[in-house]
């Protein structure tokens, strides 16, 4: 170990790894972190910190691992600003979707965009998220709904991640919505998803996902998509129980899904199946807020031992929200997560949704760390990171 920089005097370090510090957040007080050219090379007490050519004084700040946003739709073209105004006048998201708007309008624009245009747009979306401390993100396809555009979206996601220095994990979501020209034959569209689309996308994706709900896909169609995706080497996850209850979360858990996301309408059966399978519940309070949906039954999820992640669900329609700190605050205020649960949800548990336990915890080998300064006058305690909507002011420490 020969450190190139050392962060000194942290009031509090939350490693998010209970083996490295106290409690579920792995707390260390008066801590220091050293980095070499590859990443974090030492973590410990400030009075034992190694020397390094560059010293960052971090008194009054809280150190955390780079954040993980475990559910986003960050690649798209076009705007849904008009639709948002229509929704404000009282038209529901499902009505807009059924009338050919919503996801379908974004599909039209995304199909017309080139790979370069999609990379540019996605890069511009990711840059402010990186600046707020996000180091890893899941990005889904699902605005192409044909083999070529679905693959192009996943390629764009990977290239945008490289441009901004973010770890991007990709999810094939050809079964996001039935495209307008297949509305009379949804099963025929599923044939296309599990046939040509999956064949085009399997080598550029890590996960397979499906949106099961009224106006989207049925549980049986969802099962077929996930089974075919698993057979192609992808790990399953699902959009489940958002607008209506379907039983999709239970089906996905029984297939070994890493996560079931949304869950506003989930019941006891679904929760039991998730707990048994170790399926993580992904809380998406941005969508809950924008759609004015009820809260998922967080006390029941907690009681059953279902772990919860928190993500932005960044997309142009139902969750135009790119601030993960804001989502963590909303998960506390609107859904009833504790500060501890919300902080783990945007770090360690989010990383587990991506099947990347090397992320979301601050350890030797981590690619960097976040320094968070609570709002003026607030102490260096975990709650001060989330109490104020919009999050703390953040700087990101990277090697070199
Ligand atoms: Zn989503």
Structural description of this entry:
- It is a single chain.
- With 400 residues, the protein is α/β, with parallel strands linked by helices.
- It is 37% helix and 21% strand.
- The protein has 15 helices and 15 strands.
- The strands form 2 sheets. Strands 6-7-8-9-10-11-12-13 form an 8-stranded parallel sheet. Strands 1, 2, 3, 4, 5, 14 and 15 form a 7-stranded mixed sheet that branches.
- Helix 5 links the parallel strand 7 (134-140) and strand 8 (167-175).
- Helix 4 (115-131) packs across helix 5 and helix 8 (248-254) packs parallel to helix 9 (268-277).
- It is globular, with a radius of gyration of 21 Å.
- It starts with a strand and ends with a strand.
- The relative contact order is 0.15.
- The model has no long low-confidence stretch (mean pLDDT 96).
- Bound molecules: zinc ion (ZN).
- Zinc ion binds at residues 71, 73, 239, 313.
- Structural class, judged by helices and strands? alpha/beta
- From the N-terminal CA to the C-terminal CA, the straight-line distance is 14 Å
Please give the order of strands in the largest beta sheet.
Answer: 6-7-8-9-10-11-12-13
**Broad shape:** globular
How are helices and strands ordered from N to C? EEEEEEHHHHEHEHEHEHEHEHHEHHHEHE
Could you report the average pLDDT, rounded to the nearest whole number?
96
Level of helix content?
25-40%
- What is the C-alpha radius of gyration, as a whole number of Å? 21 Å
DSSP strand content: 15-25%
Number of separate strands: 15
Spans of at least 5 consecutive residues whose pLDDT stays below 50 are none
């Amino acid at each position: 170990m020969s450190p190139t920089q050392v962060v000194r005097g942290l009031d509090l370090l939350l490693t998010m790894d209970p083996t490295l510090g106290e409690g579920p957040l792995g707390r260390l007080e008066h801590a220091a972190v050293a980095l070499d050219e590859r990443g974090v090379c030492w973590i410990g007490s400030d009075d034992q910190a190694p020397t390094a050519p560059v010293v960052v004084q971090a008194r009054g700040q809280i150190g955390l691992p780079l954040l993980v946003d475990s559910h986003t739709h960050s690649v798209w073209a076009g705007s849904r600003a008009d639709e948002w105004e229509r929704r404000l006048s009282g038209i529901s998201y499902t009505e807009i979707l059924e009338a050919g708007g919503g996801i379908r309008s974004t599909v039209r624009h995304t199909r017309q965009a080139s790979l370069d245009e999609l990379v540019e747009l996605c890069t511009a979306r990711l840059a402010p998220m990186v600046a707020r401390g996000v180091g890893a993100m899941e990005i889904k396809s699902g605005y192409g709904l044909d083999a070529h555009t679905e693959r192009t979206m996943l390629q764009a996601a990977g290239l945008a991640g490289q441009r901004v220095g973010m770890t991007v994990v990709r999810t094939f979501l050809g079964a996001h919505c039935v495209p307008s020209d297949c509305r009379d034959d949804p099963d025929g569209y599923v044939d296309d998803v599990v046939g040509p689309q999956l064949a085009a996308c399997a080598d550029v994706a890590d996960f397979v996902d499906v949106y099961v709900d009224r106006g989207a896909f049925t549980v049986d169609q969802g099962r077929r998509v996930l089974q075919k995706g698993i057979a192609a080497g992808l790990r399953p996850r699902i959009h489940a129980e958002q607008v209506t209850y379907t039983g999709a979360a239970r089906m996905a858990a029984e297939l070994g899904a890493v996560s079931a996301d949304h869950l506003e309408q989930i019941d006891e059966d679904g929760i039991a199946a998730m707990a048994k399978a170790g399926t993580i519940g992904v809380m998406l309070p941005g969508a809950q807020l924008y759609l004015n949906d009820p809260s998922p039954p967080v006390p029941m999820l907690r009681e059953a031992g279902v772990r919860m992640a928190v993500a932005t669900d960044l997309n142009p329609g139902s969750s135009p929200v790119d601030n993960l700190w804001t989502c963590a605050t909303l998960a506390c205020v609107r859904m009833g997560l504790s500060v501890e649960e919300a902080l783990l949800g945007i770090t360690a548990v989010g990383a587990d949704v991506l099947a990347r336990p090397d992320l979301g915890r601050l350890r030797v080998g981590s690619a960097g760390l976040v320094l968070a300064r609570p709002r003026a006058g607030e102490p260096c305690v975990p709650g001060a990171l989330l109490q104020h909507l919009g999050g703390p002011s953040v700087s990101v420490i990277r090697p070199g």
